[in-house]
């Protein structure tokens, strides 16, 4: 098969994995030989019309697969065309793309062929050739296979910046029914093993064993959860994330709204991908990680285990906790400023720093180009206090909710496809 | 500006030159409104103003954050950038009675906001250059050479060559822009004049593959062109080989999605992909939820196998306490069958849960130390927990230990009893209150029974002491040392019981 056709099949097969990050790894460059660099910050080299970043050459080594996961285009019983890169082809392709500055590196995954160990060996071999034969200093993200042998995992971690195993679905039960060959406890055990190794490598780097430190995935591990393929509600989805962040030190949980695939399984008839829901989950995930919100607080902004689709989860929380407002921008503690709808973490730090020297007024906020219409009902400044009763008005939501096309799209009825 | 002073800078982003002039102006006490900043060759017409003062440059200490931002902000194409920077410097050093030393911290100040905006724009421009610059290879006698045409918005080329040198140190490359060019021969960098797009190669053989990749990685069911344009503004498209695919991809997307929906689910492929390797099928879950599978009790002839079966039995129970589903795995006991001493802790902690082994966390390590000190051959002892899964509350990046409640203890109790029967120790050392309660069924106070052997109605000999995590929680070093010694003494006493 012609290389171009292979690339089309194997990129198409990889596109349902949302992960694209090329950030968070150690600093390296090619001044002492080889090619490539990583400087901590990820780079998106292009964006596709789906709004997704293209940072890495994201492909499968092969889309042949013996697993029969209903949500996956590559499942054993799918009718898609199958292809397979040779290890050399993929190494060359990565380097050609890299030299032309199309990509930050490679994100390699694979269908399971022959056995988990055989598949993992092939993946590791691509990374080994890039690193050892070509001195490749760019970013490598490898998908690991839960059942592969520990030595293979150790080698994968030695070459890769990031490793990931997809948790796939928020509930063990749905994995059992939709992906019969996958094993949720096995996935968690593999994540646990990776966390231990990542921490061991980090610890060794800090201490006297520095030189002997086994390199292991300096950019950590991540995972992906498909949203909308099973009946799990947002509380179940986020509850799973909370456990994953706390238990396995994941850098990121990616949420991927289940998207219709060309050759769909009868278990999952096509429907529009729940893009708005996915977006709200990402926002909630941010609140959990960077804004000091607890899971139950976030869920309190929604109804019946689902987030409010029409407004962001922080605003939703604020509208249901009006007694906590208004907050004085000149006096409130950081934790409370972080809860004001429209104030981001960076802005909060700037305000905290500025207010030590000035008393902040509304036009100070305007100068920072903050969304005043959303902000001011919740905020007291040196020259502003929300009008009496404003916070109690039943229509406050319509006053502060952004009237964007995105918000309009969020109305549940419009989610049906076409 | 009759008494104005004109400063001519040699280049549009020459921070060193600006800095030197600014220090001279400060030394001469020239206020910002009297200075007219120009760049050589940029401003045609008469250059008004007196020559700069011949003062020795002043050495003033200014906040590092100002210098860092100034060095980046000066690359902005705004013609007022030099004046803004000098005005801010003046305010920091000369303003108010003692100078506005804290100016940079006042994020809401109009000048600070403006400089912040400028540095942000420059950084974004640089980031987009790292991202959207595309090289095209040409063959030369000395081997391949990579040439790019890029149109930055600000004066960033020279500053950003470092990025491309670090990344492509071993390649020969040129970056051409309208205002300047940079050339790297694998060893040295040479800056040259600007050029035009025609100076760069018109195509590259690999662009066809790259466009094929770009088109294939796009998911037509998720069309979000506004998000794409926000991050990859249209002004860059003309120099991006893949961008020519965009109109077609967008136009075809609705039809492709409609076709997927219309086609609906497709029947399974007649010849499914086959494995050469048959993965071990996990055993079917036990239906029986009222008690233990009866066959467990018939395997007494091989206690090690029976212990393994007991572990598997717990693993596939479908009536585990609901919190157990969040644990990574079961943490079952470990040690030789027939070990004289069997230690029972409370429940696995974070590290035990990850490793799937008991007594490997902080309390376990302390226990091992104390046991060795008491003369116990640690690998020859059997260790386990009253509760076999980690009960925790997730908080951020940590899992906080939650004590098992009476129901949890009761649930695992039959399994613990069975485990002890199979392991067959001569003495069971219970560590902490949970273990003691699980073993005796009664909430006994450790302080009352510590160090005495208790015999249960079914003939089990139990020796109660504290849990090592109790030692870890003690606040001061004195009581820590005292309690540690007491703990070692208890372990010694237990050891004597079985000698």
TrEMBL record, chain A:
User: Which keywords annotate this record?
Assistant: Iron, Iron-sulfur, Metal-binding, S-adenosyl-L-methionine
Kindly name one Pfam family recorded for this protein: Radical_SAM
> Which InterPro entries does this one have?
Aldolase_TIM, DNA_rSAM_put, Elp3/MiaA/NifB-like_rSAM, Endo/Exo/Phosphatase_dom_1, rSAM, rSAM_sf, RuvA_2-like
State the source organism's domain of life: Bacteria
The answer to whether UniProt assigns keyword S-adenosyl-L-methionine to this entry is: yes
Which SMART domains did the record assign?
Elp3 (SM00729)
Return the protein name.
DNA modification/repair radical SAM protein
Specify the species: Paracraurococcus ruber
UniProtKB/TrEMBL annotation, chain B:
The domain of life for this entry's organism is: Bacteria
**Which keywords accompany this UniProt record?**
4Fe-4S, DNA damage, DNA repair, Hydrolase, Iron, Iron-sulfur, Metal-binding
What parts of the sequence cross the membrane? none
CDD domains of this UniProt entry? UDG-F4_TTUDGA_SPO1dp_like (cd10030)
- A Pfam family (short name) is DUF4130
Stretches the record annotates as Disordered: 262-290
Instruction: Tell me the ranges covered by the Uracil-DNA glycosylase-like domain, including all copies.
Output: 332-492
Concerning NCBIfam families, the annotation shows: SAM_7_link_chp, UDG_fam_dom
Q: Which protein family is it in?
A: Belongs to the uracil-DNA glycosylase (UDG) superfamily. Type 4 (UDGa) family.
Q: What is this protein called?
A: Type-4 uracil-DNA glycosylase
Species of the source: Paracraurococcus ruber
């Amino acid at each position: 098969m012609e290389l171009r056709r292979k690339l089309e099949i194997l990129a198409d097969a990889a596109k349902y994995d949302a992960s694209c990050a090329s950030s968070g790894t150690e600093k390296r460059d090619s001044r002492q030989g080889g090619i490539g660099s990583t400087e901590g910050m990820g780079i998106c080299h292009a964006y596709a019309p789906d709004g997704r970043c293209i940072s890495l050459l994201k492909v499968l080594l092969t889309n042949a697969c013996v697993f029969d996961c209903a949500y996956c285009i590559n499942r054993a019983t799918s009718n898609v065309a199958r292809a397979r890169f040779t290890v050399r082809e993929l190494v060359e392709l990565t380097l050609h793309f890299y030299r032309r500055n199309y990509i930050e590196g490679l994100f390699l995954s694979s269908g399971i062929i022959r056995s988990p160990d055989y598949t993992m060996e092939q993946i590791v071999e691509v990374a080994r050739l890039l690193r050892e034969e070509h001195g490749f200093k760019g970013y490598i993200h490898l998908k690991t296979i839960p059942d592969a042998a520990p030595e293979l995992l150790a080698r994968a971690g030695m070459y890769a910046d990031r490793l990931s195993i997809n948790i796939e679905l928020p509930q063990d039960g749905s994995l059992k029914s939709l992906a019969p060959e996958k094993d949720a406890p096995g996935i968690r055990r593999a994540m646990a093993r990776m966390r231990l190794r990542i921490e061991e490598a980090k610890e060794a780097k800090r201490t006297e064993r520095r030189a002997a430190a086994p390199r292991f995935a300096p950019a950590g591990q991540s995972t992906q959860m498909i949203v909308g393929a099973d009946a799990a509600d947002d509380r179940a989805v986020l509850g799973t994330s909370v456990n994953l962040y706390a238990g396995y030190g994941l850098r990121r949980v990616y949420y991927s709204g289940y998207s219709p695939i060309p050759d769909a399984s009868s278990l999952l008839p096509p429907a529009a991908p729940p893009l708005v829901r996915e977006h709200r989950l990402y926002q909630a995930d941010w609140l959990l990680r960077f804004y000091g919100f607890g899971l139950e607080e976030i869920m309190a902004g929604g109804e019946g285990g689902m987030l409010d689709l029409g407004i962001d989860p922080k605003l939703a929380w604020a509208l249901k906790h009006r007694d906590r407002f208004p907050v004085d921008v000149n006096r409130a503690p950081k934790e409370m400023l972080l809860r004001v709808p429209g104030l981001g973490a960076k802005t909060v730090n700037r305000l905290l720093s500025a207010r030590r020297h000035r008393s902040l007024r509304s036009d100070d906020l305007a100068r920072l180009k903050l969304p005043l219409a959303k902000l001011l009902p919740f905020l007291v400044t040196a020259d502003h206090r929300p009008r009496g009763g404003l916070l109690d008005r039943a229509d406050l939501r319509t006053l502060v909710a952004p009237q964007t096309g995105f918000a309009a799209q969020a109305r549940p009825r419009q989610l049906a496809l076409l | 500006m009759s008494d104005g002073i004109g400063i001519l800078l040699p280049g549009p982003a020459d921070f060193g030159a600006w800095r030197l002039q600014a220090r001279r102006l400060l030394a001469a006490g020239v206020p910002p409104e009297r200075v007219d900043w120009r760049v050589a060759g940029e401003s045609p017409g008469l250059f008004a103003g007196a020559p700069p003062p011949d003062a020795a440059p002043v050495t003033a200490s200014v906040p590092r954050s100002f210098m860092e931002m100034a060095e980046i902000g000066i690359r902005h194409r705004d013609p007022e950038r030099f004046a803004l920077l000098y005005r801010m410097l003046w305010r920091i050093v000369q303003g108010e009675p003692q100078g506005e030393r804290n100016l940079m911290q006042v994020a809401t100040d109009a000048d600070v906001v403006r400089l912040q905006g400028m540095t942000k724009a420059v950084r974004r421009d640089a980031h987009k250059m790292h991202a959207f610059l595309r090289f095209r290879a040409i063959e030369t006698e000395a081997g391949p050479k990579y040439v790019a045409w890029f149109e930055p918005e600000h004066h960033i080329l020279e500053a950003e060559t470092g990025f491309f040198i670090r990344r492509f140190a071993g390649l020969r490359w040129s970056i051409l822009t309208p205002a300047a060019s940079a050339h790297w021969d694998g060893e040295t960098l040479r800056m040259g004049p600007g050029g035009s797009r025609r100076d760069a190669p018109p195509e590259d053989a690999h662009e066809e593959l790259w466009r094929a990749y770009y088109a294939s990685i796009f998911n037509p069911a998720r069309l979000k062109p506004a998000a794409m344009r926000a991050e990859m503004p249209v002004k860059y498209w003309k120099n991006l080989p893949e961008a020519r695919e965009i109109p077609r991809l967008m136009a075809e997307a609705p039809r492709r999605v409609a076709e997927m929906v219309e086609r609906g689910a497709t029947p399974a492929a007649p010849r499914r992909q086959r494995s050469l390797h048959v993965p071990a099928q996990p055993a079917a879950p036990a239906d029986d939820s009222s008690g233990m599978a009866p066959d467990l009790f018939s395997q007494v002839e091989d206690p090690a196998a029976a212990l393994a079966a007991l572990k598997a039995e717990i693993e596939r129970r479908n009536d585990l306490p609901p919190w157990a589903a969040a644990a990574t795995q079961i943490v079952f006991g470990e040690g030789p069958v027939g070990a004289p001493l069997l230690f029972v802790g409370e429940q696995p902690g974070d590290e035990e849960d990850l490793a799937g082994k008991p007594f490997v966390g902080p309390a376990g390590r302390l226990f091992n130390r104390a046991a060795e000190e008491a003369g116990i051959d640690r690998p020859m002892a059997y260790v386990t927990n009253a509760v076999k899964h980690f009960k925790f509350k997730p908080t951020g990046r940590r899992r906080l230990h939650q004590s098992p409640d009476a129901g949890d203890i009761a649930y695992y109790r039959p399994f613990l009893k069975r485990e002890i029967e199979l392991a067959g120790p001569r003495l069971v050392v219970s560590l902490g209150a949970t273990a003691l309660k699980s073993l005796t069924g009664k909430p006994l106070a450790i302080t009352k029974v510590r160090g005495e052997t208790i015999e249960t109605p079914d003939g089990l000999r139990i020796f109660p002491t504290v849990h090592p995590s109790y030692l870890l929680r003690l606040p001061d070093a004195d009581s820590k040392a005292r309690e540690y010694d007491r703990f070692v003494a208890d372990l010694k006493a237990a050891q004597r019981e079985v000698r």
